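Worked example 3 (structure in, sequence out).
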């Protein structure tokens, strides 16, 4: 089904079309939320909030952009709000559950458990460094490196110029480099 039909149906309060909309975009929303919150249970909660917000604000959707761009923006905002609201929890909480599992990406048939552990530890260190970036740098970096969005797409999601996106990504890389160098020195 085409996006215009979905949007039109949702605006007319067609619940079946809203279910279709969720099915079509659930993976995209979950992926972006997970990349920010690093926990599948939290990502599911945030994704639900994203779809609730999308339903509530469907009238505001201007069809001059793609639905995916609009959903990226809502997902990023809801994820950042979640992180801000839960900042008081222990850092270790954000690395419980999913992050302690060895990811399928790092598992290879010829790697030892020690190598898998080291790879997982590196991933946690990098994720922690990314999560410590200022929100706008973090968002631009995640959308570019983890979601493979172009600078132009990121500029639409964030509502800023392409030059501003490039600047944010450069500063994010510089800050990550400093954080990781200082971590490995200590």
């Amino acid at each position: 089904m085409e996006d215009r039909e979905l949007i039109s149906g949702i605006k007319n309060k067609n619940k079946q079309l809203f279910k279709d909309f969720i099915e079509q975009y659930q993976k995209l929303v979950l992926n972006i939320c997970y990349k920010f919150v690093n926990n599948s249970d939290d990502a599911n909660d945030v994704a639900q909030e994203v779809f609730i917000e999308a339903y509530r604000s469907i009238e505001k959707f201007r069809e001059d952009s793609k639905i995916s761009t609009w959903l990226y923006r809502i997902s990023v905002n809801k994820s950042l709000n979640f992180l801000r609201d839960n900042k008081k929890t222990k850092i270790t909480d954000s690395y419980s559950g999913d992050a302690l599992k060895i990811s399928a990406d790092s598992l290879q048939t010829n790697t030892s458990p020690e190598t898998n552990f080291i790879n997982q530890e590196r991933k946690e260190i990098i994720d922690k460094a990314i999560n410590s970036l200022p929100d706008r740098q973090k968002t631009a970096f995640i959308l570019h490196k983890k979601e493979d969005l172009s600078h132009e797409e990121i500029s639409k999601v964030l509502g800023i110029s392409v030059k501003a996106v490039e600047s944010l990504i450069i500063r994010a890389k510089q800050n990550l480099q400093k954080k990781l160098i200082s971590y490995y020195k200590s």
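Notes: The chain has two domains: 1-89, 112-186. The mean pLDDT is 83.
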